[in-house]
Amino acid sequence: MGAELIQHNEAFRTAFRRLDQTLQTLPDAPQWSLESEILKPLESSTLSRAMISQPANTALQIALVDMWAAFGVGPAAVIGHSSGEIAAAYAAKLLSAEEAITAAYYRGQMMEEVTVPGAMAGVGLSWKDTESFLQHGAVLACENSPTSTTISGDLEAVQSTIRAIHEANPNTMARQSKVDRAYHSPHMKTVGGRYYQLIKDRTLAKPLRDEVQFFSSVLGKKIDLPTDAQYWQMNLESPVRFYTALARMIEARTGQTDVFLEVGPQGALAYPVRQTLAEAGIKASYIASLARKQDALEAVLSAIGNLYANHVRIDCTPLFPGSPELLTDLPVDR
What is the 3-state secondary structure (H, E, C) of 255-304? Predict the structure, then answer.
């Protein structure tokens, strides 16, 4: 989860610690720090708790954006999945780093206030095909790719939907996720209003800038309106239309040579991105900033190599901190 970058990458470390400082200025500041949580060993980690994982994941993403900027890598267009839209908005300069981490922090706090037992499940069917199996109390939550959908809702309703899918299609993937909350379902509406009140004066809408396009997975299209507190409430409560938004992005950028760089703790969107690109008949490279169970510094170096191989200009200065030294006492090879 980026521990090695905190230790070895100045841009990442500076951004991450600044975000920690921002959280400590809030009236209801956390009793923990982002850095201490990231550096905890697996056996004592509390990153599974939404109140910590939400701001920690956003902090990681923001710090990665700043790290890539130090390498001279920036976006022409951005898209986010679920809470990943917060960091996408930061990358597009629609939110400041302080606004973004604040929105993520209170989003995590709201998850602690959802008391209705819920569940989610991944389904290997299209959005439309999945809809026909939904049982009362389950809803479509995430449209990930042409044949990947996430459902959400009441625990029994989600489990009944899984059974219905398996009865009709025994070989179709339908698996309950390891979460106890129904994200992007009506359950979120129980806290959506309070979330809005907490962030309405802390996430000020900014005008869209022409140089970075923002494709909304809330609305499923490129947006022309600022992302204000109302938008982030919608992001919490509404289905994720990632596939539709990504398809619109690909269509809008037809004829341009793009590289899709995922900014997150692992390549979670590799399959949805590659499947959507294949459906559109587009050949473009997908690169993950980090990988599960891989040293974060090694993963970034690998990503740098892949970006360079895809003709992305890289400023390698951050790889060699400090002033270079000229060695004058080496033996001469005659």
Answer: CCCCEEEECCCCCCCHHHHHHHHHHHCCCCEEEECCCCCCCHHHHHHHHH
